[in-house]
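Exercise 7. Given the components listed, write out the predicted structure of the assembled complex. Treat all entries as one system.
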Amino acid sequence: MSKAGITVATADPPAPAVRHLPRRRGVELALIVLAVLLSVYGYCAVGLAQHGTLPPGAVGYGAGLCVLALLAHVAVRLRAPYADPLLLPIGVLLNGLGLVLIYRLDLETPGDRAAPAQLVWSTLGVALFILVVLLLRDHRVLQRYTYVCVVTALVLLTLPILFPAVNGARIWIRVAGFSIQPGEFAKVLLAVFFAAYLAANRNALAYTGRRVWKLQLPTGRVLGPIVAVWLVSVGVLILERDLGTSLLFFGLFVVLLYVATGRTGWIAVGLSLAALGAAAVGRLEPHVHSRIETWLHPFASIEAGEGANQLAQSLFAFAEGGVLGTGLGLGHSVLIGFAVKSDFILATAGEELGFAGLSAIFLLYGLLVERGYRAGLALREPFGRLLAIGLASLVALQVFVIAGGVTGLIPLTGMAMPFLAQGGSSVVTNWAIVALLVRVSDSARRQYDGQATR
Amino acid sequence: MTRHIRHAGFFCALLLVALLLNAARVQVVQAPAYDRNPANRRADIGRYQQPRGDILVGGLPVTGSKDTGEHLRYERTYTNGPLYAPVTGFASQLYGTTLLENAEDDVLSGTHPMLAPFPLWNDFTRARHRGGDVVTTLHPAAQRAAYRGLSGRKGAVAAMDPSTGRILALVSAPSYDPQPLSGNGAAASRAWARLNADRDRPMLNRAVRQTYPPGSTFKIVTAAAALDAGLVRNLGRPTDSPDPYTLPGTRTRLVNESKGCADASVREAFTFSCNTVFAKLGVEVGAANMRKTAHAFGFGDGELRIPFSVARSTFDASLDPAQLALSSIGQYNTRATPLQMAMVAAAVANGGQLREPYLVERTTRPGGSALATAGPRPARQTMSPSTAVRLRALMRDAVRNGTGRRAAIPGAEVGGKTGTAQHGLGNSGTPYAWFVSWARGDHDLAPRVAVAVVLEDARADRGGISGRAAAPIAREVMRAVLNSREQQPGS
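Answer.
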């Protein structure tokens, strides 16, 4: 890069007033190598702790992860050279760590191996990432597909109703032996729809309509479609008993509405709606009611002599980790039982990596969200801004809902920890989110490149 | 719009802070409470993750650990379970630990803070170290002799070294094998149910956890009190004692098993175990002095640990003269563990100085270096040395000429006292047979062993049954100790 720059410079010296932004692809490469090395190290640590030898697949695992990450890196280098250099390495590290944790739990459950499938899904996810980065030259193209997005999202959300419930929730469909959670894909599509629709109508939302007391209510014509979509998606989710996702959509809706219109009234309306909904659902749905009871009294089942429930086991796992953790492969989070590799994957991280490791993971997510927000701030056109904020907020809310759930901060709602948890649809979706963020951040920085200083 | 994006970003940062604070709450602040929760199986898993330290007798481990490959990985094994069960107890994954397994659990399971390489290391890493070993004071030959002697009967033997307090043998019969209790499967529950349903109560440690009326063996204590109080100056002079003796303030007449007890001298009365003489002597000594001497021997002490607890032996403190008379011959409310009676014999043998008994010579790190060593226990003066010399003579005479003849060992000085204790309503129960004794080899400077034997099912009629049944068991235990060279426990 620099060499080429020098040759160009000698051949045709640019005007001194023009500033070239550093593209920072070298930083990205170095961070990716670090992320891969950390994951391989974790993989080896698990093997050493469990069997005293390096696991046989370490080389293959490392090489596979390395090749995937490098391919993604090449794609970014080719088509998004100005992209934020932190986004891809964070994705690689979280995905690699998730594979390590799942592999580690597989050793305790020999009958149920999830890591190979997760590796396949990760490959698909990275492939989708590459595809998006290569094919989607400009994120504004997505604006054209606003209504395609929303229809697809609604279809995806309604599909599982036709399939049998799994563990009390109708959120899976089975295709050719694979379990797919269409709701995961729907959330990206809905984010795109919200961003596009709000970008187009934000002025109408903010400034037209009747004024009731201190609240500026938008006209029904503008607000109608968006509330309808939201109501339908939430209604479907309650039917499917997937409250985590419904909470996620609601949060996304409120955040984007607030950012687009700047009306604090929306927050008040949103929060009161949320409180109302929560109260109603908590009262009416026994499934939800028991979740809230468990959250308030996680050890009630122990006192009742029925043994520790999943949340109590999860808390025990976190507590066992303490500050420094037991070390990879040395914990007993498998006691949680069902969903230990998916919803409760964070408990394994908390037990074996300790508060230090858990904080590091939270900060990684925080960094990912922060980079998304930064891209949103840097962009000038509203769709890109809202898209970046929407995608970053999706990650933030999802991490909060599930991490807060398994650590007893809020009632537990089943949801996948982005990148870490077992679940193919989730991994693929998260790679799509990172790809879109890469694309948006590339646009955000590209616009400043080559500009005259001052 | 920028401002509102910043607001939303601030909101996300708030969520992050909430997650971090809550994680700190769970993992740091609440962690100790969660770790202690009984439903948290991690403590159990960690505890059985490694082989447990061993209990050593005569330098050889009598315990082991077996890798089961299960979730709770290592199980306790015992090389000669029934022989050592009254010492080791059991270490069960279901039912906890008892006796030495319980008292030294921190060393055996590796949680003892001194097992850490550095101070406070455990607090920081919360790691578990390899378990250390526990070296006992037991004399293997004496233990085996006692176990053999009791085979097929109900009873207990306690033997100790009078000059140090080391416990040389601790046997309870019938015994049990603790190994089937080690695991956590159905077999362990079945073994537990079977042992608890057994009417012979094999898991009861009769040597330290069961008290019996000591009967005539308690006359040693009464004699010591009388001699110390100066009531008896000449052991050979006839006492003014009627036969039968009417208990003061009652019409109950106390009789003797043997003849010739009327006005017998203390020596004759001790040799032939005259109840009337000692009942009257006890009344003359008085409740206060009797109690003082009994407590000096260890009666009334509920705090004794060897290191597991020993049941309290009792000598009733508030007595009318009739009760005092009965208590002085080891009846009424007087009760003693076999170990307590071994302590009585040991105090006599050691010139009136009683060394507190102990069972653990030292605990060691896995490599064998000492973790803690039994220091010299404080000695307690139970009677004046001159009293002890005269009591030794009395006990020697009882073996030479009296009720304890079957305990005699050629080439050794042996002193002993038999006892037969009635119990049950109206003395309807099968009497308990006692024998307490000490022995000094002819080449030894001081007595090397003190023994107490109790048999619950002495079936023969009372005259001399204790001598017939219990004395030979004591003899074999004493012989086993005397036959060994100067013993170095644990080496």
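Discussion: The longest strand of chain A covers residues 173-175. Residues 142-156+182-295 of chain A form one domain.
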